[in-house]
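[audit] Reproducing an earlier prediction to check determinism. Same input, same settings, fresh worker. If the tokens differ from the archived copy the diff job will pick it up downstream; this log only records the rerun itself.
[audit] input (550 residues):
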Amino acid sequence: MIEPTHKQNLSVEGAVDPAFEQTKSFVDPPGEEFNAIGETDVGATLQYKPLTTTDGMADLMSEVSRFQIIARHANGGLGVVNRAKDLQLGREVALKEIRSELASDRTIQNQFIREAKITGALEHPGVVPVYALGTDPNQLPIYAMRFIQGESLDSAIEKYHQISPKNAKNRRIKLRKLLRQFIDICNTMEYAHSRGIVHRDLKPQNMMLGDYGETLVVDWGLATPMEDLSDGLASHTSETTIVGTPVYMSPEQAEGRPVSAVSDVYCLGGILFAILTGKPAVGGTTLEEVITRVRAGKLKAVNQIEPSAPRALAAIARKALSREPSGRYQSARALAEDIEAYLADEKVSAHRESFIERTTRWLRRHRTMATGLGTAAILLLVVSVAASVVLGAANQRERALTAEAKTQQERAEHHLITAQSAVGDFLYKVANDPQLQSKGLESLQHALLKNGSKRLEELLAFETENPELRQAQNAQQYYLMLAAYRLGNWGQTLETANKFTKSFEGNQNPSSQRSRLVQCYSMRGSVHNVLGDNASAEQCFQQGKQLVDG
């Protein structure tokens, strides 16, 4: 397929508004302004006379030995596409011509030739190659191009969202495939922008997916050189004449302001939104309502429509769809790089990860270490729940201490001890894991230690008169000490070490804690050495030695 066969209308959640038929207008014919464009721009190749566009063109249809029409293939807003046989080279091609009811309009003829020349000048795997531009026997422009067999991205998105949520594996595979194709689209647009061309009508219907892995951006009928746009030479948008497709156009395009490559980035954000949700980012039942919402930046949220959509991808779409151009990705390549980061399970620049998200992502990428750290990380997830249980039980103490209330209090304190131990074990594993201490993973280790320490401190802030719970809380200072030592926080190391050692004064140094007390004195001594307090360091080392000899 070369050109989408859909009507130029707006479909919002199944409702079609006739007001959207005829929403695409055509830009003014190019003229002398192309002469000022740099040689690296595609615009420099589009030099022809506006009202004599077919002068000097070959009569393609009269070359019976070259092209033979097989059948009508598709109808578009501007032209029709025929399947044809290139008899010289023995290949099937697509011949595009202007719709008969529009063929006599010179402006449309110029627009048609402009589309052919821009498409032909963009030599990239993501753009359909144009083989020849000429005239038919009636001297009307016609051009031959590669015939593409496949489906539109719009159709592929629809099929993806028809997969049952219960079939999670297939949905995941299909989404990753769509995202890779989306990256191809971004790369094609990065190339077009580097050649000075803005598409202005990017949408899923204008993306073709070939049967053999091709991803193509088609329908360059509204494309124009950036110099035209900055000089105000291209036609502007109004409520009665719209350049582009309303539900995918940028706010500046809807307002008639100058557009740029970043305007195409907005459209790409709309395509990503459609991939994730199956719907456009803006709703409405009339042209006026949609345009008003686009101009105001009143868009839907990805997770509002599709709660299961990955939050990192939702954040990427949200950034690309920023109302102001300065808030978007500043290039199609930058957008593609964030998608690539997501597919590689790396951090996405547009998304601020939570501690749990960051930890989970890291464990996915380091499955060998996940065996040792996995249990502790999973237990860490119950911390918030456990803390909530404890706080709820604390309120019970304000009431009469009935037998039931005491039972609830004891149960809550048991959960608290379990949660504290889970976080402590997590900190111990992270602090002592040799792979995390290797070059390149220190920043991750520090992030895990900082967040884990914060969670443990929150749990230890709970006051209790239960001696068992108090003793357990004091023992957790050991883990905070380890984390502080690895982070190089000497003051925090000494503070937590002192709390840990004092908790066992007069307690005959239980054997279960003796090795930790020895390590505690050793760390205190090392810190005092770093701080230049040699006397205190020697004292700590001696205390540790006494425990070992004891």
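[audit] rerun output stored. Observation attached for the diff report: The longest helix spans residues 403-432.
[audit] end
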